[in-house]
Amino acid sequence: MLESKELFHKFMKYSAVGCISTLIYFLSVFIFVEALNQDPLIGSSVSFGIMTYISFILNKKFTFGSDFSYNKLLRFLAVSSIGFTLNFSIMYLIVNVLSLHYSIGELVTIIVIPIINFILNNYWTFK
User: Fold this and answer.
1) Whole-angstrom distance, CA of residue 43 vs CA of residue 5
2) What is the pTM of this model?
């Protein structure tokens, strides 16, 4: 029971970091797409990189209370690469194949990717 309570608290911290990272991500996407007139795939990709850097720093300290190590960084980047690939694939499908507005793709990505990333980061990256 204690383990599930700790996992829940960790997930809540992860969610808080995720909210901050997601706000930064959406702001970045908006700036790239709407203000700088970049393609949504490019804007989403660059924004994902910005979000990943901020997420690693915050999760390392706040969520997982972990010290820095190159092994953790490499694992985090591997998990992020999986997330990036999912992000790109979902955006491509929704924008280019289904011809829907990019914001629909963004909504799908913020539901799917955080769940997968938490599981991988909790049980592999910061274990």
Assistant:
1) 38
2) 0.72
